[in-house]
C-alpha cells in the first residue's frame, strides 16, 4: 500500500509538474508524506488495540473459566455439606435414641438397686433382731 501511494504521488507530481509550479508539487508531496505517516500511525494504533483486545478477551475467558469452576466447586461443597449434615443428623438421632434407652435402663437399674438395698437392709435388721433375741435368751 505504501508503494502504491508513492507511485500515485510520483505520477501526480510528474503530471502536475508540467502544468503547475514546483511549489504545489512540493505541497502535494508533503501532504502525501503526512498521509502516509498518518496511515502508519493508524496501523500501529490498530495493532496495539488488537493486541489489547486480544489480551482483554484472554483475561475475560480466564475469569469466566475461574467463575464457572468456582460455581462448580461451590455446588459440590454445598452438596457434600448437605450429605454430611444428613449423616450427622442420623448419627445424632441414633445417639439420642441410645441415650434414651440407656437412661431408661439406668433408671430401671437404679430402682431395682434401691429395692434390693432396701430388702437387704430389712433382712439385716431381721437378722440383728433375731440375733439380739438369741443373745437375750441365753
Can you offer a commentary on this structure?
The protein has one domain. The longest helix is centred in the middle third of the chain and has 116 residues, at 22-137. The protein is built from two helices and no strands. The protein is an all-alpha fold. The mean pLDDT is 87. The chain has helices at 2-17, 22-137. Helix 1 runs antiparallel to helix 2 (22-137). The radius of gyration is 53 Å and the shape is rod-shaped.
How is this fold's topology laid out?
Elements: H1 2-17, H2 22-137
Give a nutshell description of this structure.
This protein is mostly helical.
Q: Give the terminus-to-terminus CA distance.
A: 146 Å
Written as H for each helix and E for each strand, in order along the chain, the element string is HH
* Sheet with most strands: none
Total DSSP helices? 2
In one word, what is the shape? rod-shaped
Structural class: mainly alpha
From the alpha carbons, calculate the radius of gyration and give it in angstroms.
53 Å
Task: Summarize this structure as a short list of keywords or feature phrases.
rod-shaped, 2 helices, 138 residues, single chain, mainly alpha
Amino acid at each position: 500500500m505504501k508503494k502504491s501511494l508513492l507511485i500515485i504521488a510520483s505520477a501526480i507530481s510528474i503530471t502536475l509538474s508540467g502544468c503547475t509550479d514546483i511549489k504545489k508539487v512540493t505541497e502535494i508531496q508533503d501532504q502525501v508524506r503526512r498521509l502516509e505517516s498518518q496511515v502508519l500511525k493508524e496501523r500501529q494504533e490498530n495493532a496495539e488495540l488488537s493486541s489489547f483486545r486480544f489480551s482483554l478477551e484472554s483475561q475475560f475467558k480466564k475469569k469466566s473459566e475461574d467463575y464457572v469452576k468456582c460455581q462448580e466447586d461451590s455446588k459440590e461443597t454445598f452438596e457434600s455439606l448437605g450429605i454430611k449434615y444428613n449423616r450427622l443428623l442420623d448419627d445424632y438421632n441414633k445417639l439420642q435414641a441410645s441415650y434414651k434407652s440407656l437412661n431408661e435402663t439406668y433408671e430401671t437399674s437404679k430402682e431395682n438397686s434401691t429395692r434390693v438395698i432396701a430388702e437387704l437392709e430389712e433382712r439385716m435388721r431381721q437378722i440383728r433382731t433375731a440375733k439380739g433375741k438369741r443373745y437375750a435368751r441365753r
